[in-house]
Structure formats: C-alpha cells, structure tokens
Structure prediction request, 1013 residues.
Amino acid sequence: MKKTDVVIIGAGAVGSALARELSKYQLDVTVVEKNADVGGDSSKSNSAIIHTGYDAKPGTLESELVVAANPMYDEICKDLDIPFKRIGAILPAFNDEQMEQLPAIKHKAMQNRVYDVEYKTAAELLEMEPELNPEVKGGLFIPRESIIDPFLFCIALAENAADNGVHFELATKVIGIEQKDGAVTTVKTDKGDIECKYIINAAGLYCDEIASFVGKNDYYVTPRKGQFYILDKKTSCKVNYIVLPIPTKVTKGKLMCPTMHGNMLVGPTAEDMLDKEDKSTNTEGLESIAADVRKMIPRVNLRDSITQYSGLRAQRNPEGLNIDMYDDLKGYVNISGVRSTGLTNSVAVAKYVADLLIESGMKAEPKTDFIKTRKGTPHFAELSAEEKAELIAKDARYGNVICRCETITEGQICDAINRTLGARTVDGVKRRVRAGMGRCQGGFCGPRVIEIIARELGISPDEVCKNNEGSEMLTGFVR
Amino acid sequence: MAEKIYDVIVVGGGPAGLAAAVGAKEAGAKDVLIVERDVSLGGILQQCIHPGFGLKHFNAELSGPEYAYRFIEKVKATDIEVKLDTMVLEVGDHSVVGINPKDGLFVAKGKSIVLAMGCRERTRGAIMTPGTRPAGVYTAGAAQRLVNRQNMMVGKKVVILGSGDIGMIMARRMTLEGAKVLAVAELMDYTAGLTRNRVQCLDDFGIPLLLSHTIVEIKGNKRVEGVVIAEVDPATKKPIKGTEVLYECDTLLLSCGLIPENELTKEAGIKINPITNGPEVNQFMQTNFEYVFACGNVVHVNDLVDNVTDESLRAGSYAAQYAAGTLPKAAEIPSVTGNNVRYICPQRICPEAPAKLFFRAAAPKLGVTMKVYADDKEIFSKKLIKINPGEMEHVEVSPEDMKGVSAIKIEVV
Amino acid sequence: MVTKDIICITCPQGCIIKVCGDPEKGEIVSCEGFKCKRGKAYAENEFVHPLRILTSSVKTAGAAVPLVAVRTAAPIPKELQMQGMEEIKKLTVSGKVVPGDVIVENFLGTGVALVASGSLE
Prediction:
C-alpha cells in the first residue's frame, strides 16, 4: 500500500495551489485526480479572470480570501513564469436605474476593502472603451480585475509542486475514505489504497460526494452551467478591458473581455443543472449571450467565434465558501462552496488550509530547498528574431512550426510532453502550449500533434487520447 | 557576396504555388523560390487520391497526386529553388520571413511575391454546432490527411455534416476503407458539391443524403457517441422542433465550406475583399501592394483545380513581368457586381490589357442571361441554361471595350 | 425489364434520364429526359454497365511514408469496387515508385491494371 502524509483530492486550481503550498514543508504529499491531466473541471472552463472581490458578500470567508488573493498574483505568476495582466474592469450603466445602483456597488467594494474602485463618466468610459454602446451614462472602473491563462496557472502550480516532491496520481478516482478512532487513515481509489494522516477534499463540483464518504455532507453541490464563446484574435470588434454588466440578483451577468492571448471571451450563461457531467453547449444558451452582450458592446461579432465551451460552477447549497475541520474526524479538511471566485481564491485557500493544518498540530517543518520558481516552455512566437534564431540553432525542432495559427513549434510541443507532469494527451498539449487553440482549432496541426505525442511517449498513434481514457482520437490503422 | 534577390518568391507549394512558379519561369524570371510548409510539394492534392482532376488542363482524368506529380516534375526540370518544411511567418517589404529546422529564421528578398497559401476548412467552432466536445469530430480534410497519408483510421461509424465535395469524397473513402457512413446532412436544399460526387460517392454506396437537415447536438463525453440530426425550415434554416433523430456514431466529419487562408496577407496590410475573404486583385492577380500577387484559393475558393492552375500560371507570369519592369501600369477601373452576382474576381481592371473576369452567382436560377456593361453600354450578352453559385462563370473583356470607361458591370437576369 | 432514373453527370445540369430495358442482356427499350447526345450515351452506359475508377492506397515497406496512392488505370465495373478493396488491402509496395507504375496487372481479371498514383522516393 502507498503511504503518504497528506492526500489532496482534486488537482484543480485549489488542489494544485494546495499541493504547491504544502510542498514548501517537509511533508509527503499526494494529489489524487480523476482526470488524466491536472487542471480540474471548473478550473479550466471559466472566464479566466482574477477578481478583486469588490462585489463579494462583505464579511464572508469568500470575500476575505478573494481580497487577500488578488495581490498575490503578480509574484506567483512571475515565479511560475506564466502570463498575467492587470487590465482592469469597467462596469458601465446604460440607464437611470443602473446608474442608481452604482453607489451601492462602490460602497460594497469599500466594505470589502477594495478601495481603488472609481466612478467614470460616460465620456471617460467611451474613451477607454470605444466599442461601448454610446448610450452609456456612466460607470465604475475596477483597476485590479485581471486576466490569466487558467490552464497554465493550474498546470504551473502542479508542475512546481511536483518539482518540489509532490506525487500526482492522475486518472485515479477516489472511491472511499477509511477512518479509525476518529481520524482518517486511508484514501481508497480505483487504483489502490493510499495510507495517510491527512486528507484534504478539494474536489470542487464533486466535494459533496467525497464528503459523503465520511458523513460530512451536510450540504450538496449542484452544477451551474456557464457557456462561453471564444472569438478570433482578428475579430472586428475588440475590447480593452473586462466589460462587466451591472449584476442582477441571479448572476453577475455576461461579460466580454480579452483573453491572455488576445482572443475575445464572451459569456457566460448561468443555468442551474442537475448533471455534473453535462458540459454541452446549446443554441438557446449561446443565443442568450449574444442578445445580452450586444446591449453593452453593440458591434460584438459572434460570427468570428472560433469555439464555444461550457463550464460548470460548483453551486453549494446552502451557499458560501466553507473550509471545515472536525473534532470527531481528525486529519480531514473539507473545502466546499468554491465557485466562480475559485480560480482567484485558490492561492489564498491554500495558505488558509496550510495554516489551519499547522494550527491543528500537523508537524510541518519548512523545507530549506524549496524551488520557488518554474521555467515555462519558451513562447516561440513572442521571441525576438535573434532569440528565435538562437533557439533553433540549439534545437532544430524549434524551427519546425506545427500549429500555424498560433505559431507553435515542434520544440515547444516536445517540451510540453517531456517536462514534469508533461502532456499525455492532445488537450494536454493544447493547454500547455496552445497548439490547436487557434482559429483552425487543430484542423491543420491535429494530425501532426497526434504523431508527435505517439513518438515522444513511445505509444501507437491509435492510443493517443483527446483527454481522458476512452477519448481515443483514432480507431486504428487503415492498412 | 551580395545578398540574393529573387525575381519571384512564391508562398505555398500547392497547385497554385506550383503553377505560379512554373508560370514565372516560363515568362522569363531567373531566380524563383517556392516556400512550402509541408514535407513535400503538391499541397492538398497529395491527400486527394480520388480521380477527377485535370479534365480541363490535361484532358485526362487524374488523381490529386498524379496532377501534383506532373507539376512537380515541371518544377524539378527547372532551376526553381524549393524550401520545404518551411513556414512563412511574415510577408514584408519585397521580402518574406520564413523558418525551418535547417536555415532557422531567414529573410528572402524578392522583386515580386506571389501569395498561394490556399484555404482552410470551416471548423465546428465556426459553424457553432452545439453539444459536448468529445474526440472524433474532424474536418473532412483533416480526416482525409489522416486516412490517405498517415494510414490512420478516424472512425468506424460516421456521420458527415455538409455536402461539400471533400465531405462526399470522404463518405466514399470511409466506406471503401471499411467504415459505415450513416448519413450526409446538408443545411441547404441542394448539395454543395458537384453532382458527379453525389452520384459516385453517395448514391453508389447507398449513403443517405439528408437535404435541409443539420446537426443540433453532438453527444458523448469521451468519444462521439452520437449526433442529433433535425430537419430545418428551408426558408429560415432553423431546426424544426420534433424532427430530431439520434444517429449513433463514433465520428463526425465536417464539410461546411472553405475559407481563404489570408493571415499573412492581412498581417502585411494588403486589402482584403469582404465577400471573397481574399485579397483584392486586378486581372494580373496583383494586389494593392503592386509587388505582391496572389492566386488560387487564397484569392477566392475555386471549384476546380484546373481553374486554379490556369489563374496561377498567369499570376506567375505577371509577377515575372513585374520583376522585369514590363508589366503595364495604368489607372484602374473597378468591376461592379450587378443583379444576382455575388462577386467578381478581379475586383480591379487595368483597361490597357485584356481581362478575364471570373464570377459567381448569388442564387441558383434557370434560363438566365448574363450581361456585361461598360458603364451604361452593354458590351456582351450570353444566354445560360442554368446558373449555380457552386460553379464559377467567366467572361473576357478587351482594351477596346474599356477605352474611356469608368467601370465594368456584370449582371445575371 | 427494369426502369432506372439515372442522374447525368457529364455536365453540371444533372438531367434525370429515364432508361428502360434489360441491363443483363444489354437491351435498352427506351431512354428519355436527356438534353444532349453525351447525356444519352452516359445514361445508356450507366444502365447497362456502370464503370468507376477505383482509388485507394497501398501499404509501403521501408519507405518514409506509410502509404502510396493507387488507382485503376481505367474504369472498372462499379460492382467490383469492394472486392477490389479486399485485394488492395493485401498489397505492399517498396522501392522507387512513380505514378503510372503497374502494381497489379489485369486487376480482378478486368484487363485493367492497378497502378501507382502517388510516388515513393
């Protein structure tokens, strides 16, 4: 039987951040993830925004942690060598009713200690964001709302954790938890048991199911679907800021913003669902996005969409971010209610949980040899001509462009496969280096990427999967 | 050593690029370079192993590789320089920036440049097919490459969306190679591709063609498990509720249209026509950057490779003339679309030279007359039994027709 | 005696030509709906004995690419296509190949050769 000190269940943003945080200590940490790759479910399908917490419910744990997390990102992203941009958000009001809501929104921001929210006049907003509906009356500017690459963020956290000794058990599903004398002892998985002292439930959408193994499911989680469009980098109508609608009681509403790589992101819907596996898009949802966003950005051209996707937020019932430890179940930490703020929250949740464990008596000596930084795969397209030439001279595979839409080279794809916690799948390559993420969506590079993965991993091309087991790209050979 | 300056640099080594290079050489260009991103010349022709090419140009029914071979042999017989495995990153001022494993990043200078990058397929994202995102959804061309060149089978039970030629040809290919093709669904009430392909690729194998149908949902979380096909209202193209039928399959192929591949053109700042999605050209296939020419599917999606060859031979020869300083230059006049004409290529005409104008109708119609006007004066008229947007028509105008004229108009009535 | 609607593919018009006769005996009683001589000839041929060029690919040995394209040098009876595929699946080619090289003479006893349509260096 495998033995470890801490098992983290789930390698989404929270699980990955926790893995990295705990890897700073002399602990043996194992992350168990049901998917074939790190990056989670909700953590990879969202609006890719690092929030300030200006609109959180004041006085809640969620508010405290979002507000605390936002300032951490400059350093974390620098350390992990991933892109991050503080582009700011605008919240335009288009009628008197919406104008009347602005003071309350600003006041709430102050209550949440987000002090840098400012009023903007219609003229100022139109200068900042020329594509805004000219009927704008005024609005708010939230300078520290930021954008990130959510795939790379989770992957980089996990990679750095792995470099610091954390074990990742991927494609491994937790099927039970054993306890003895009021303390957890073992995580049971479909690939065998893991003996441990601590278990952290960071299973997001499925955290209620994990909690039920130890009878701590005094809540349940329902999925709330959010559908999105990604628009071509060359779309005719682009925005400079995260453009947010004035929220309604039901949802924060549908936004439009640039992505870290220069595409436009438009969405999401908010549809309460029952099936946690249903990540399908539908015409009704997508059409509702068009109607809503056009009110703010009339020229938005959804015909320039290169892909649409949906993600499931984990809606806790009753609501609210909860991080619990239990007197009658030592060693168990339950994290629930991580929802749309979860991507932002993750790094603060990680610190909070680490502190909670240490306070509770977990033996955790800081490491002296913690590797704080990670070096990412070179962004070939963004290098200068000299740097490109130098890289190709060192490794000719960087001279072989595989994905023409994003200018991704064979060198980058091989690096993505061969690095720590490297890509094993087509989606894994796509999320690490963006091959297939462009306007042709892998139409050109897909066949080549399959060949490279097969070659680098020493497997047959018909064993290459899109993502999880059972998602084989091919069904065999022709001859 | 002085820096080498090519007379003509051709971007792309598919049918258009090959013909352009040959055309340039035949017109007297000395140093010609082809830059091709694949490991071999021929472009898409190498995976089009079916017959039907060359009926016009070679008066023989050839397969894609055979058609390509004839041009590759012509190129090999000359001193045309070829860089394979090379991606052009940028078209600059009389130059292209390219990259390959051997030369690294390089700049090649040319007196004229011919853009021949071809086109790409519309994807699932572009047509916004709802549903899950499993493995097993391919564009027909990507599947064609996997099956015909890489020896990889993409699926066993297949549904095809779109009745474009590649889609129908892949229906036959998949059937011949042992897969079951359940249906081809087409949004319009007519096939997008050629009738001969419908007969020989679908009817021959008993593959149902569902006109006025579309896919309203893709099912399956890992691999495709099925698609839901619904009938559409022919007028609105919206699915009709209650007509949904689930087709259990493991693969969906998309043949929903082609888009000229103009990333480099746009980056360079060359003027793009919003209808064709290709650069605007004159009859010399010259863009608004006078040293940049363009030909083939990068300009407008052609119906037959033979037309691409014809156009590209001319483009190459004009590019060579430009490099030699002998290409006529004069104030240009526009070609104007009249009734039931979707676009005309070229969009601009140099009135001092004869011009071959290609055009496509906006809607199919029987018993029509095409008319050409020089300003208000009718200069040509021809009766046609039928006009179809799927097939290109053409007409020639002479310098005499254009003397003192401010525009040439084509209409179909 | 059978009647068949044949869609003419000799030009883009796609005339539907009604042919009546006994295809087994090669007898044609009537042929209607054609608008030109070529159409009539196509429909009659298609009725009596439809022919198709079969194309596919053959496995290579010791080459940089896994497949080389092949075709029948001329059209073969339509009904032999699937049988032809079974033969093609058994073949392997190696060495230098150029389009037109004969892979199988008298393919399926049709008198038509199976030839390479692609090349191998």
